[in-house]
Amino acid sequence: MSILSPYKLGDLSLSNRMVMAPMTRGRAIEGNVPGPLSVTYYVQRASAGLIITEGSQVSPQGVGFYRTPGIYSPEQVLGWKKVTGAVHRAGGKIFLQLWHVGRVSHPDFLAGDLPVAPSALPVDEEIHTPQGKKTIPVPRALGRAEITGIVRQFRNGAKDAKKAGFDGVEIHGANGYLLDQFIRDGSNRRTDKYGGSLENRARLPLEVTEAVVKVWGAKKVGYRISPHFSIHAMSDTNPRETFAYLAQELSRIGVGYIHLVEPIGGKLGAITPEVQMAPLIRKKFEGTLILNGGYDARSATQTIEDGLADLISFGVLFLANPDLPERFKRDASLNREDVATFYTGEEKGYTDYPSLGN
């Protein structure tokens, strides 16, 4: 069984088992709208079995990065509709990633308001704002009554993603953003029903998931996790217990997939077997498992053949190689990524990477 073999994800037929991972690119136009360049960028990569878009904030409160697209305004929905229409015409499948950064933000993004979080704990990092590099302030703890508003933001984002023509959505529960902040005890010190016990800390992520599932149906919803992530002051005293419980509950809800970030392959540096999460998540979760973490063609195929994952997502390799499946098929050489243009450069480092024969 190869990374190039087809796969059935719910009722979606994927042409291969290669997923384009969500990647922030900083190319949205005024109003945090995906523009014409975004259409070109995603269409170029439509040969992926599944594209997962860059994180798209579900409200103005969820913004934390310069020129990132949203999914809360009519203009954004229209911008994304142009992307999905073009990707579908090119034969591709595409999910939108629903995102709220929580405390990893700055008042410059939030009309002067403080970022929100489960608890008022410092991040002790700097962030690039429209006014330059600034220190992330200590966030404001969300009030109990506000949390239903967070669920509503994700539900509305899911509805707008459906209007925009996506094939499904991925909930961003990884990388130290809001839902990750709630489930980990290093960032959640609440004493109400959204903090303390593991069941309480998981409450908001699961409420969000259930709300999104009501919009899309369970099999068209995925959830991304990154148990090893320690940037943005993230920590947990027992990540195996925490994420095993989350996987078990996501399985109960019946979501289509879990997308696990775990650098066990490629050049990111292997996670040791003692802390490796994939076998545990595989045991607790009955749906599709997507793994991400520096894979190449050989390690990806081996992981699928070993039964550890169903799909493998590729970030930088898809960024630099729009025709990555064809390159894997031909065992062709790969373009080298230009790190300086990951988040800036308009078409440079975005839509100008050559395909084979170009």
Provide a descriptive summary of the structure in words.
Helix content is 30%, strand content 16%. By secondary structure, it is of the alpha/beta class. It has an 8-stranded parallel beta barrel, surrounded by 5 helices. β4, α2 (74-89) and β5 (94-99) form a beta-alpha-beta unit. α1 (36-44) packs parallel to α2 and α3 packs parallel to α6 (203-216). The chain starts with 6 loop residues before the first strand and ends in a 28-residue tail after the last helix.
Layout of helices and strands:
Layout: E1 7-9, E2 12-14, E3 18-20, H1 36-44, E4 50-57, H2 74-89, E5 94-99, E6 116-117, E7 126-129, E8 132-135, E9 140-141, H3 147-163, E10 168-172, H4 178-183, H5 198-201, H6 203-216, E11 221-225, H7 239-253, E12 257-261, H8 278-284, E13 288-292, H9 297-305, E14 311-314, H10 316-320, H11 324-330
Parallel strand pairs: 3-4, 3-14, 4-5, 5-10, 6-9, 10-11, 11-12, 12-13, 13-14
Antiparallel strand pairs: 1-2, 7-8
Helix pairs in contact: 1-2, 3-6, 6-7
